Amino acid sequence: MRHHVAEHTVLFLSIVKWTFFALIIGATVGAAIHYFIVAIDISTTAINGVPLHLALLPLGLMLSTFLTKTFAPDAKGHGTEKVIEAVHKKSGKIEPKNIPVKILATIVTLATGGSVGKEGPSAQIGSGIASLVADFLRLDNHDRKKIVICGISAGFAAIFGTPIGGAIFGVEVLFVGRILYDVLLPSLIAGITSYEVVSLLGTQPFHATLTKLPRASDFGMVFVAAIFFGLTALLFIKSLEKIEHAAESLRTSPYIKSLIGGIALVVLSLLLGSRYLGLGTALLETSLKGAAVPWYSFLAKILFSDLTLAFGGSGGVLAPIFIIGSTAGNMLAGVFGLNHRLYAALGMIGVLAAATNAPIASILLASEIFGPAILLPAAITAAVSFLINGHNSIYPSQILAMKKSRSLDVEVDQELSAVESRLTAQAKMNIRTASRAVSFFPAHAPHAAKSVPKAPHHRRRNRK
User: Fold this and answer.
1) What CATH number matches the domain at 216-406, 1.20.1090.10, 3.20.20.140, 3.40.640.10, 1.10.3080.10?
2) Positive or negative CA dihedral for 325, 293, 223, 205?
3) What SS3 class is residue 414?
């Protein structure tokens, strides 16, 4: 009895301790995220009022490159990747200078038209604030990591406008196939608190409740669409890798690279339209409301985002992922005569689940943004898209904690950037057996010509 009393006393005190920490983190991060959003809105409005403001885009990428290269290299790129890396390799230690540099570089990129999001910087803001609190409280490495994860969850919950899905996203995104249950309660408290603070300060999240659901006979199409969304996420991941590699291979200064990338974005926007620049909120809302968008919109958004991030822009990838997914679903609905609103929503959730390897958080996000009626098709979409994408991620610092198939020879407990996926010997044999079973020709058909006997030569007649 004494043992049980002592055990529950310790657990109760732990709950009280982490509830207190989570409330502090949630309130602080929520306020910071609100003013970050306000700064983006003010700066974007001011730049858009300037004549020929599109010409400022190359200068914006150059300034972003200068800020990150000079003051905080970890602020480069889309933010969340560096946070995941810090949690796994530095016990959540975030350099304080990363926060203001990341904020400023993202504002410059977005205001001048760079195709990025504000979610990655929000995760870096949340983790940076939590790391500062850990320093002030002199927490050990274990508790520092936990409180930084709370900061990540608070940042996502505030910026998504989804207290539960955002909080779970912060816990799930660190690993592929593993959720840190010991951080679940404080992350939820931090996420809910940050969401409430942002709402009280006046930031209104985007919600689009759906009521029309697919019938039971339509779920085959949902399954097919989910495969397409997973492959769309794979296209985004691989194209970003290729364009970043191409940018790095250019033998010139980083500022000239940024200038080149900015000019390319200006030319593309003149050809395809400016709807793919910046946050792209109008394009996202148009797609999710069921209005028709150009069929190539998801491909254009991939290209614009790749160029922005590869050539010096700073910002998140989740807003582009939302737009890529929703426009891909919108396009698919137009081709097959489906409900545009439903498949735009499913595309957004499917590409998010696949690109980030966070299917559980994606399902919860779907419920909070589109209403509980979407849960069943969203769950199928997220699960299938997550699997079909394979062992790839927009966050290569994620730790792989599971194999997505027993037929793949993959080493777990390592970063995805180091993962090499191969077929097992049994899988190879099964594929060969299956291919023979469905083949129209027998296995020895290619050698059949050799086995056909040649016609005998007629003997020459005797001349005599």
Assistant:
1) 1.10.3080.10
2) positive
3) strand
Task: For residues 299 and 374, give the distance between their C-alpha atoms in angstroms, rounded to a whole number.
Answer: 26
Domain 2-200: give its CATH superfamily. Clc chloride channel (1.10.3080.10)
Under 8 Å CB-to-CB from 379, ≥6 apart: which residues?
A: 363
List residues bridging with 399 in a β-sheet: 175, 415
Query: Mind giving me the DSSP string for 249-301?
Result: HS-S-HHHHHHHHHHHHHHHHHHH-GGGSTT-HHHHHHHHTT----TTHHHHH
pTM summary value? 0.90
Closest to 389 (Cα-Cα) out of 346, 354, 351: 354
Return the percent helix, strand and coil in the chain, to nearest 5: 70, 5, 25
DSSP bridge partners of 316: 117
> Minimal CA–CA distance to 151: which of 102, 191, 180?
191
Name the one residue in this structure whose structure tokens are 């209403």.
Answer: 371
Look at residue 409 and give its three-state secondary structure: strand
Residues 6+ away with beta carbon under 8 Å from 234: 354, 388, 389, 390, 392
329 phi and psi angles, rounded to 5 deg: -65, -35
Polymer length of the chain:
464
147-196 pLDDT per residue, tens: 999 999 999 999 988 999 999 999 999 999 999 899 999 999 999 999 99
pLDDT in tens, 201-227: 988 777 777 766 666 668 899 999 999
Look at strands 408-409 and 422-423 and give their pairing: antiparallel
Calpha distance 151→159 (Å, rounded) = 12
- Domain coordinates in residue numbering, the chain: 2-200, 216-406, 407-452
